[in-house]
Fold this sequence. Notes:
Blueprint: H1 5-57, H2 64-72, H3 76-79, H4 82-105, H5 112-143
Helix pairs in contact: 1-2, 1-5, 4-5
Amino acid sequence: MDFDYWKLTTVVLAVFAAYIAYQQYQLGRERFKLDLFEKRFAVFAGTRRFLTHILEDGNLKDYKYLWEYRAAIGEAEFLFEADITAYLEDIYRHALKLKTDHDTLSPLPVGTERTQLSHEIHGNLGWLLDQLPELKKRFSPYMKFKSWK
């Protein structure tokens, strides 16, 4: 029986190269997951920060918070499915309504129109404040490494 050292060496090197390629593939997948997590977390953190501004003041003192929020969620449609992007838009709409209603309320005289607007402000503010604990529930399926949506 004739033993061919070079054939054996070639086979061993091929197996080793395949193993290295597989490890690089695994590492690439994990890196992708980490990058995706970081981008998704940035959207989550921006939304939480926005809601916190509203919680601190009971209103948005300035429109700059709305623009910062829009910037924070700008890539959301590429990172999440429609459920989260629609949710983020709902938050924006409620916050914008809260801000415009507050701006409209101050010059109004006491009366039914002012009372009705105050009730709308209260409803929007309550909905927005309820979103802080809801945020983790909504984002949670997208933030787990084991199961990606």
